[in-house]
Amino acid sequence: MPRPRCERCQRPLDHCLCPLIPSLDSRTRVVLLQHPSESSHALNTARLAALGLVNAQLRVGEVFDDLVELLQTPGYRPALLFPGEHAQVLTAYGEVDDRPLLLIVPDGTWRKARKLLYLNPLLEALPRVTLGAVAPSRYRLRKAPEPGALSTLEAVVEALNVLEQPVSFDALLKPFEALIEGQIKAMGAETFQRNHGTP
């Protein structure tokens, strides 16, 4: 029989993360487009980002039919958080009345994220933004495909910390860190060290 789950964070009730999830406001509107294969993943960091940000939304799917309306959200300028040859490194919002970003964040493995762009040509056409130098990922349970690769939640936190400085969005990482600690505890220190190196 499946363990009862929290309807909000989708974690088993005895590991509910809701008490750790903040409710942070941001000028930036964050829209997370999640590949369906990620939605049932135990470490669903996009869901944590959406739950912890008031001005965020999580969409699950491969093709998003209402992208035209979404990208025309009044008061925002859309940008895709995704590396690429012409991606601009994010910088803080200026003093002048700078329209905040409607930050579109694909969520999935690199292959699945690229597939989302391929299946939604409007996304492919958006101006791209990327992160500058980043701290190493705290995501100790997945091997990073390359140095500087972050989980979706970490990428969102880094982006908002840059855009909206001096405001900090690090509180979003609390449930993420608790989730990782819980997974490590469940697998046992020995197994963790064998599979993922020293904690």
Automatic annotation (TrEMBL):
InterPro entries: DTW (IPR005636), DTWD2/TAPT (IPR039262). Keywords: S-adenosyl-L-methionine, Transferase, tRNA processing. It comes from the Bacteria. It is an enzyme of class 2 (transferase). Belongs to the TDD superfamily. DTWD2 family. PANTHER family: TRNA-URIDINE AMINOCARBOXYPROPYLTRANSFERASE 2. This is tRNA-uridine aminocarboxypropyltransferase. It comes from Pseudomonas kermanshahensis. The lineage of its organism: Bacteria, Pseudomonadati, Pseudomonadota, Gammaproteobacteria, Pseudomonadales.
